[in-house]
User: What shape does this take?
Amino acid sequence: MILGLRVVCGLSRSSSRPLGPPLFPVFEVTVSGAVHYRGWEVVQVVSGIAYDCDVLVVGGGIVGLSTAYAITRAAPGTRVTVLEKESGPAQHQTGRNSGVIHSGIYYRPGSLKARYAVRGAAEMVKFCAEYGIPHAVTGKLIVATERDELPRLHALVQRGRENGIPVRELGPAQIGEYEPEVRGLAGIHVGTTGICDYVAVARQLAESSGAEIRYGARVVRVDRRADLGVAVRTAGPGGGEVVRGRVLVNCAGLYCDEVARLTGDEPGMRIVPFRGEYFTLARPELVRGLVYPVPDPAFPFLGVHLTRGIDGGVHIGPNAVPALAREGYGWGTVRVRELGATVAWPGTWRIAARHWRYGGGELRRSVSKGAFARAVRRLLPVVSEGDLVPAAAGVRAQAVLRDGTLVDDFLIREGARAVHVLNAPSPAATASLPIGREVARRALAVLGG
Ligand SMILES: Cc1cc2nc3c(=O)[nH]c(=O)nc-3n(C[C@H](O)[C@H](O)[C@H](O)COP(=O)(O)OP(=O)(O)OC[C@H]3O[C@@H](n4cnc5c(N)ncnc54)[C@H](O)[C@@H]3O)c2cc1C
Assistant: This one.
C-alpha cells in the first residue's frame, strides 16, 4: 500500500472536508493546532490516498504486458498492476493471430508501424532467443499471380528498401526454388520475416516485468481525478474490487474505446471488430514457409496467406468479415449491446458504403469453403477443398473514425492521468516491445510531472 500525501493549508469552519465518491476515498487529518482568525479556523490538512500501485494497466495482452515490462525496466521500483479480465494472459488477439514476426515491408516509411515493426522484429527475435521461446527467422515470399499486381509488387520492393529491409526479386522459376508448389508471375523474398509463439512471449513479459498481474479482473468502472489518480472497480462477486493507481494505461485491445470512455475521455474512434477465419492445411508438406499475396493498397492488412507456424502446421487465412461481437469468434456469437454500438457508429456505415464490394467477397469466402479454396488456389493450385480443415478464428481490433476512415497507423492518446492505446492492429505483436516502451515513457512522464 502506497500513501500519497498532500499538504493543504486553508481556511475552514471545521477540521474535516467532504469525502470523495466511493472509488476514491481521500482521508484527511488535521495535523496542526488550529489558529483562529475572525471566527475562521486556519487548519493544516494532510490528504492521504491509499494507492495500490503507481501504474494501473488494463489488459493482459502483449501490448499491456510489454508496457508493464518496459516500465519496470526503465524505472525499477515503479509498482505496476495489470488487470486482465480472463483467467490468463493473451487469450484474445495475442493468442489468436498468425504468429508472424513481420519485417515491416508494407508500412509507409516514417510511420509508427514502419519504425516499430522494423525495430520490433529484430528485438522480438532477440527476446525469444534470450528466453528460449520457440521462434525462427524463415523469410517469406510475396507472390504476384495477376499482371495488374506487378506494379504494386515493384512498389513494395521500393518500400522495403526505404524501410531498410533486405528484399530479393524473383521470377517464376525462382519462386519454385523456395516453394515448389506455389505458382506466380513474379515474387519477392523478404529475409527478415519470422515466426514465433506470441503467447509464450506474453507469459515471459508478464513474468519478467515483476508486475502484479490480477486475472479474472474485468474493469467496469473508472473514477479518474486529474489531481489524484485513477481508481477502478472490477466486476465480481460482492461488487468486485477497487484498485487505485496514479496513472491508468489502457491496453484493452478490442475494448480500448470503451475503457477510454469509462475513464471520461472521448477517443473519437470506435473499435469495429473484424473476424479473421483460418483453416489448417491437411497436407502441410505442400508449403515450406510463409507465402503472401500482393496486398491491396486499400486493405494492406488483408489477404489470405499461407503460414507454416512455429507448431509445424500450415495455417491458411485470415479473411476479414464483420464480427457480431467484439469477441465473436464464430457467426453464432452475437452480443446485442456491442453490435448495437457498432451499428450506431456513423463510421461503420461509411465503411460499408465504401467497401461493400470487397466485403461481399470476404463474406462469400466465409460461408463457402469452396470459394475460400478457389482464393487459395491462386497461390497454391494443388489445394482442394478437402485439404482445408477449419481452425480457430481471431478478431482484429480495428479503430474506425466517425467519417469511416480505418485508422492505419498505431494510435496512442493521452488524457489526464491516462494513456490509451487506441489502435494496435497487426503488426502490433511484432512491434510490441517498442510500443510498450513508448507507452511506458508516456506513463512515467505523468508520474514524474
Ligand atoms: C487474425 C489476426 C492475425 C494477426 N496476425 C498477426 C501477426 O502475424 N503478427 C503480428 O505482429 N500481429 C498480428 N496480429 C495483430 C496482433 O495480434 C495484435 O496487434 C496484438 O495482439 C494486440 O495486442 P493487445 O495487447 O493490444 O490486444 P489483446 O491481445 O486483444 O489484449 C487485450 C486484453 O485486454 C483485455 N481486456 C479487455 N477489456 C478489459 C477490461 N475491461 N478489463 C480487463 N481486461 C480487459 C482482454 O481480455 C485482452 O486480453 C493479428 C491479429 C489478428 C486478430
